[in-house]
Predict the structure of Hexosyltransferase.
Amino acid sequence: MMWIMRVSGFFSAALLLIVISPSLQSFPPTEAIRSSHFQGYLRFSPAVNHYHNQNRNNHNAAPAAFSFQQAPFFRNVADCESTSNHVCHPSFIHIAITLDEEYVRGSIAAVHSALQNALCPENIFFHFLASDTNLETLVRSAFPRLNFKVYHFDHNRVRKFISSSVRHALEQPLNYARNYLADMLEPCVRRVIYLDSDLVVVDDVSKLWHTSLGSRTVGAPEYCRANFTKYFTDKFWSNPNLASTFAYRKPCYFNTGVMVMDLGKWRRFGYTRRIENWMEIQKERRIYELGSLPPFLLVFAGHVAPIDHRWNQHGLGGDNVKGSCRDLHPGPVSLLHWSGSGKPWVRLDSNRPCPLDSLWAPYDLYNPSSLAAN
Ligand SMILES: *[C@@H]1O[C@H](CO)[C@@H](O)[C@H](O)[C@H]1NC(C)=O
């Protein structure tokens, strides 16, 4: 019995250390988990997870104790449309990205990549959905002249819909923020590109922006060879009322980490509420195992405007635990996405990068010396 008490005492002390130590709190966690990809399983120890949930509840958390280098100013080429700094100016390409302490390094790299590869970088307007609006200062320090707005995403908005699941990692409220873009962004913003925080754009994002959605509300690369059945439980498929939602469509998997969204249509047809309805059903009946992806599949799979696969070369995160590295899918590449449980900044910091992580590194603006300075 004695050794059990010693061991549990040790763990309590370790937990206390993690909760109280400000220097530890500023480290990016070694087990990055948030992902819209189906392979992003829980890898957190309960102690670390506990700390993160606490921190995410606390909107007034202390500013992050790390910093970013300032990016160069990226100028428009000569024949770009003239613009102003007003969000409603029609020349803008609108991009939405989430911002939280855990993924801010990835978000900053994503912004950097989009600016660097655009012909008209001054015509991009960024909309950041943040759990903690203090991160605005960090964004401004990296990009002093960026056109952007930070919106506070209130976790209580989704908390009531999130089922208590063993996989808490997939249930981070900010994962659901993409469902609220139509409500949160300025009404004059009628189209937006949503991007996850674990990707880089290596092509001119205006090409993605100008993709036609036809009559559809959401555009994304589709993967029709993936086995769609496995995204939902037997309970879902065996209930004719539920399963019939896919009756007159040909549903295909799509990754919600890169989407072009028609916010005008989204508002008109009330898709936010439709997605919430499925989340309510999930809370009572467990019709799927994953977090924020399945309700999007329920509403949009089979009704998505197919976008070229070059715009989401996904899965590069691979599996951190097995240490596996993924290769690119065949074909051209406009966007690299480290979905999956491994993140390039974690692997680079631990000197165990995958070969393709070297394509993320040039966009990293993280200032490692800032940790020592604190
Ligand atoms: C798809 O997955 C389901 C559930 O895992 C399985 O029963 C079915 O055989 C699979 N279908 C194909 C074509 O692999």
